[in-house]
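Q: Got a minute? One more chain.
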Amino acid sequence: MKNRLRKNKTVRPLTDETDKAMKIAICIFLVVATLAVYWQIQDHEFLYFDDNQYVTDNLNVKTGFTRESIVWAFTTSHAANWHPVTWLSHILDYQLYGLHPKGHLLTNLLIHIANALLLFTVLLRMTGALWQSGFVAALFALHPFNVESVAWAAERKNVLSTLFWLLTTWAYIRYTEKPTVKKYGWVALFLALGLMSKPMLVTLPFVLLLLDYWPLKRWKADDQVGASPPRQSQNQTSLSFLILEKVPLLALAVGSSITTFIVQRAGGAVQSADVFPLQERVINAFVSYLSYLQKTVWPSGLSVFYAHPGNALPVWKGLVSAALLVVFTAWVIRVARRLPYLAVGWFWYLGTLIPVIGVVQVGAQAMADRYAYVPLIGIFIIAAWGLPDFLATWNQREKTPVLFAGLLAPLMVVTWMQVNHWKNGITLFQHTISVTHDKYREFARAHNNLGIALKKKGRLIEAITQYKTAIKVNPDFSKPYNNLGNISMITKNFDEAIRYYKESIRISPDYANAYSNLGTVLLQKGEKEEAVVYLRDAIRINPDLNQARTNLGTILSQIGEKEEAIVHLREAVKINPDLALGHFSLGNVLFQTGETEEAITHYREAVRIKPDYLLFRKILEEVLRRTKG
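A: Always. Here it is, folded:
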């Protein structure tokens, strides 16, 4: 039996025309099948869920390519991340497509397809195994777990960083064939670009070491059997040298990790031990490892977020999960020489999930579909090489392509359905509510976000229902109170709006938007002195709130504090040069202080931005008439 297995695992290199045709056919299948399940995204919308931070409300992205926007991309910690290459990609998309979501999402899709083709090419080059390499790439391209990374514009960082992950791997393969400094330089360059897209690549040096074991077989003590590459490596060396070889790459990874931790902690994304104690994080980490596997095999109940259960997760569940992981890992190590792909795939999965498994908790989620985009490649490798070996024990190895096709067909159906959930905020959060357990307080987020999506469609009564449901689920959640205040503002119920905004501030004393909104409604009621207090608090908490600065500048000019008013209004139009009301208000104050020429400049900017707004045009004409007179 062992001899037969060894014979079956011998892979014939691609040399004849049939093999070349099959390779092309697999590439065509990857492209066509992926387009088939994802093509519907061209009719999808932006989401008011990170898409606003990354694209729709991001003023730096919407300025297009300028010197200032490029400098901003490399220096900002906006959205609690440092990923300048990702920002540049969003700026380019805005330059090309404006605020049409179709273009932004199609870019994600094209990168995802490129990733699948690169994954197929990389595995084929290392192993020569046509069907196995194609199956891994197909699982990666078509698995519903990866929908979130493709159908969500804000997750550009995930697909883009993976593109550089695979380019780094490709460059590394070329380097191992004939090591030179130049080839190593390409490896380092692609790794650096990947880290500047998303720091998920910090584990890539470790994965390259796994690939040295199999299928590159660069480890000197290599007497393993099974799943050998089409040729034996001519660059075998000691493990210590292979580790030393990765030191420059590790240095890049460490530098990126430190930068990411500093930026995320400064942005408030890193949760303290008071919010999630270490024991809760570790328990959740062990359970999440198994949850990812369960959803890989049976991808149901996929959600845009999975609330962290905190102390609701029993200790025994963490202990059982940890025991299962340890036992399976021990078995993998035991059979590693005979089944090296099993060890590489398993440790790929375990290792690449470490940065996002939640020991260092970022955000309030227990896990996330997007976090599995790279780690599941390891599991796909195990499936692609393990299933043929299983069939070989029954002398059915030749049926491998049929089995692969049979597994991919239902995945494509489920993925198509999952993509449809991402059509807009309403469909996404309705689905999220249907699969999220309401025993967790984070369930309130889904109702709040659904309320936001309904409000944007003008369905105010339905939005109010969702906000109130969010409050019922989690009375200490400040955002739905603020959002109820916004609807009260729309309906001119100012007293009710004030009550909601004050309750939001009571729950979250550092919620800048609630201060700004409260100041705005007080301004509407004519309570200027109290409005100034809240607007100043809003700017103290978040200096980039241009609406708060505009309203504060307007009030200050009305109560005679014109110098301070000019400071705030100038800062407001600096933050957002397309803020028509800011330019108009600044023009008013400047005209009142005798700075007529500069006032006219800002009046003209207001008219340029909103040419159909008659008041702006009328005031400009009046000022020009007086100036000429």
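A: The first strand starts at residue 306 and ends at 307.
Q: Perfect, thanks.
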